[in-house]
Amino acid sequence: MKFVRYQDGAGQARYGVLDGETVHAADGDPFAGGLTAGSAVGALGELTLLPPVQPGKIVCVGLNYAAHVTETDATRAVPEEPVLFMKPPSALVGHGAPIAIANPDNRTDHEAELAVVIGRRARGVAAASAADYILGYTAGNDVSDRPLQQKDGQWVRAKGFDTYCPLGPCVATDLDPTAGDGLAVVSRLNGETKQSSTTRDMIFDVPALIAYISGIMTLEPGDVIMTGTPEGVGPMRPGDTIEVEVGGVGVLRNPVTAR
Ligand code: MG
To answer: Which residues form the Fumarylacetoacetase-like C-terminal domain (predicted)?
Structure first.
């Protein structure tokens, strides 16, 4: 199943079930008992979409694709443990909402990422049972102000501005990024492909990440794990359109504006 969150005519946030490009109003709770699809309310492109979940925390993994590690610094070694940081929930925007560049003079990059949505409380979970704690997957863009990332030595400011965490368009519940050839992770800037990899190229796969992170902090339903970006990151500027596509999820598209 794929579900979205959208704003209805009264301005209320509602869940919807996605069938092809058509959104159906849905009753229920995806985290408790599931969603039941009702009547069609419109096409995906016609609705105001919200981030598909409301995480209490967004845990992010840096340097999780070997070719991206070396593009950031040719002499940098592949990490021996996952590199973690966090983005604030205030950075979230949904499909179609603008990314407002805070510092137009600073190189501000797109980072296409598979995002994991936690389905139930996870604490000290073994990798072998990690799948039991996952509700589904969505697409994320870990927008990053490179000069501030270098200057600050940690990444809270560089990656924490409002709108610097687009997420969506939907959560897909029936995917396995560790199976077969994995899931495609792609970005396109103004229609031109910039990143094109798969989840098979992750250094630490999703079960390993859930085991590692849940050994540090309790993960709650709705929490999001951004799993890192493959090589090909590059700058976005006001006027651009950036797309992040994750296989089996769909395309997260956001216009880029100045703040
Ligand atoms: Mg990233």
So the answer is: 57-256
Give the residue among 91, 36, 40, 96 at the shortest CA–CA distance from 250: 96
Residues in the chain, pLDDT under 70: none
The sign one gets for the Cα dihedral 159, 160, 162, 163 is: positive
| Contact in structure between 250 and 136 (CB atoms under 8 Å) | no
Helix or strand run (H / E) with residue 71: helix 66-72
Rounded to the nearest angstrom, the distance between the alpha carbon of 125 and the centre of ligand 1 is 23
Q: Is 51-258 a domain of CATH 3.90.850.10?
A: yes
Beta-sheet pairing, 83-87 with 58-62: antiparallel
**What is the domain partition of the chain in residue ranges?**
1-50, 51-258
What's the pTM?
A: 0.98
Report the separation in Å between the CA atom of 226 and the middle of ligand 1, taken as the mean of its atom positions.
Answer: 7
Q: How far is the CA of 25 from the centre of ligand 1 (A)?
A: 33
pLDDT at residue number 87: 98
Expressed in angstroms and rounded, the spacing between residue 60 Cα and the centre of ligand 1 is 7
CA of 63 to the centre of ligand 1 (A): 7
Ligand 1 centroid to Cα of residue 49, in Å, is: 23
How far apart are the CA of 71 and the centre of ligand 1, in A? 13
Q: Which tens digit of pLDDT belongs to each residue from 70-92? A: 999 999 999 999 999 999 999 99
Q: Which CATH class is domain 1-50?
A: mainly beta
Range 221-246 burial, b when 16+ CB lie within 10 A, else e = bbbbbbbbbbbbbebbeeebebbbbb
pLDDT of amino acid 27: 97
Whole-number Å distance between alpha carbons of 80 and 255: 36
**Each residue's pLDDT tens digit, 95-116:** 999 999 999 999 999 999 999 9
